[in-house]
Design goal:
This protein is an alpha+beta fold and 759 residues long. It has 25 helices and six strands. A six-stranded mixed β-sheet has the order 1-2-3-4-5-6, sandwiched between helices. The structure holds coenzyme A (COA). InterPro entries: Acyl_CoA_acyltransferase, Bromodomain, Bromodomain-like_sf, Bromodomain_CS, GCN5, GCN5/PCAF, GNAT_dom, PCAF_N.
Amino acid sequence: MSGSAGIQQGSPAIGAAGSAPAAPGAGGTEGSGATVGSARIAVKKAQLRSSPRPKKLEKLGVYSSCKAEGACKCNSWKSQNPPPTPPRTDQQPNTFNLQDPCRSCSHTLGDHVTHLENVSEEEMNRLLGIALDVEYLNTCVHKEEDADTKQVYFSLFKLLRKCILQMGRPVVEAQESPPFEKPSIEQGVNNFVQYKFSHLPSKERQTIVELAKMFLNQINYWQLETPSQRRQRAPADDAAGYKVNYTRWLCYCNVPQFCDSLPRYETTQIFGRTLLRSVFTVMRKQLLEQARQEKDKLPPEKRTLILTHFPKFLSMLEEEVYSHSSPIWSEEFLAGSSGGPIPIHTGKTHLTFSQLKRKPSEPLPHEETKKLRIVGDIPMELINEVMATITDPASMLGPETSLLSAHSARDEAARLEERRGVIEFHVIGNSLNQKPNKRILMWLVGLQNVFSHQLPRMPKEYITRLVFDPKHKTLSLIKDGRVIGGICFRMFPSQSFTEIVFCAVTSNEQVKGYGTHLMNHLKEYHIKHDILNFLTYADEYAIGYFKKQGFSKDIKVPMAKYLGYIKDYEGATLMGCELNPSIPYTEFSVIIKKQKEIIKKLIERKQAQIRKVYPGLSCFKEGVRQIPIESIPGIRETGWKPVGKGKELKDPDQLYSTLKTILQHVKSHQNAWPFMEPVKKTEAPGYYQVIRFPMDLKTMSERLKSRYYTTRKLFMADMQRIFTNCREYNPPESEYYKCANLLEKFFYTKIKEAGLIEK
Ligand code: COA
């Protein structure tokens, strides 16, 4: 048996649920084939069970070895008039007489069933059940066109025949027995509901639970495409892995649906994310298409659920299925304190959408808890409503994820490729303790080549040394089994930072978003490992790339933490990046895009509400030069409020004393020293050519004394001028520039305290 699943008698068993009679067709959603097939066999089994014992013996004799004296070697009784090959399912089964001689050994049929004489009725019925499954599988073998499937059917056929001969129980032999992956699909979906929806009120959560059940039910009756069909559709996928899972599915889930003498397992209980990933994209499309087609047949109470909520549910689930960092696939996944898991189990019958009936809603086992919401937040109901329109329920396909627009984020193409399995990311490294893994070593050599080509100024030996150094790891990007890029890094957990050593993508794969997606994966990897700072020495060519990945020259890690740890490169610039553990970096651009769409829709809605058109302003034609913003007709209706509007002090003495106090405070501030007096020409060459309206605190004091400041606006304008002038003349890294910023902040605190502008 190749792979890890096998069938007794050592037969390689991979296959397709192809054209077998009443067996389900490949790649569809309909489970009706299997249902009809199994129903037909069940009827036949019931008929046989109620037939007289001699009739039962006759049937089993065909599958039993000869017990006649003289140690006859004949394995099964064969009729003198064999049935046509292949046998037709619509034919009545042949009936034989116990006295009929065997075509092979000439002993009678009775001689083949002597061992059954004292067997209980119950055991007889069990064996008869197997016999009918054998006949059915025999038909399947003959009708099946796919070679692999044929082989599985044939192996199962042989297994069941052997069971009748030996009066044993059918056990599919495999190196591994179910479950094949943990957590199971069912558990993962359960976790997903917890993870994303536990904050919802119980009624809405109930809706989600229903969607989850519906989805799991669909998977349990889903017909996987054959490995050869899949190879054609997705040649880059892990064909061998799929074949193994396909075999398991056929043996443990699919065939037992119509041959009930084989133990049956639910797909969602014995398979995990790997199988789900290989079917999800196609399945999602087909389910939505099916829902669209059945739209008019849907029970009214299910319409919104299926047409509106289901597409959204699938989109959200898709994100988690293909994301590398989704917590729902962790075995340690624990429901948050907001609620325990809601066990979602599927029924045993496959239902199409239109067959769904409303069930009385059951109370959920846990108290609803609500997320903390900020006052002024947009109501959740409104967001949900807007979200539903964004995903365009009219098309029933949800948001398009495969077409890239000109406005796509840089990493979008890479993210989609990863989801489709075209590219993979692995953190790898050399180890002195473990046996070398050939594949990993090949990748490390590949990485060394990519780095050497892309970083020609780095000595090749140096790159090799670090890539193969067990203290360094490399996040590698794999396409078609080949390394096409990577980031080599060294973690210093005790110093709370990681050093990025090399980062490169092979020439013909650059500027496709791989570099960005690599860095995002590295960020998520570090968040998981509790390191929230990256440091790297970037050469002049790399600074641009690192800046775009959120790195800056403003290093947040204290020097004492990295000095002596990080490798220093001559002529390179130290850059750092501080990670925010609440950001899912690989999904970040998608989230931002969605938020943008929501805001756009909300603005559109608001605009639709305020559809009043005012005549244009004519006052400017009449010579008016300036008008207050609030006097523009309609401006207040939009929700606009004058910013910074505060109390105008009407009493001149009161205004004077308030301004005096503020000016005093400003002058005594530690950062006021550069602005105390007018700038001296000798100290600042060319100052007065650059700054046309100079101002300083001494001049302001004089103006205050002379009662020049008759309104707060005049005072504020002069103060503001001091700061603006300073920033215009001085570079941002200068001491003066920083003083201006700090003093400005202080000044605004003071005027707010005085009530001159709104807080
Ligand atoms: N300078 C400025 N910007 C750069 C850049 C550079 N050297 N290299 C890439 N970018 C930009 C891209 O144009 C893109 O910008 P955009 O999103 O505004 O269009 C962004 O950075 C990321 O592009 P992406 O496609 O995600 O990156 P990539 O797959 O091309 O990989 C490198 C980026 C740097 C890894 C790749 O160009 C490379 O291997 N370069 C040679 C080796 C190197 O210099 N490594 C860095 C130091 S170790």
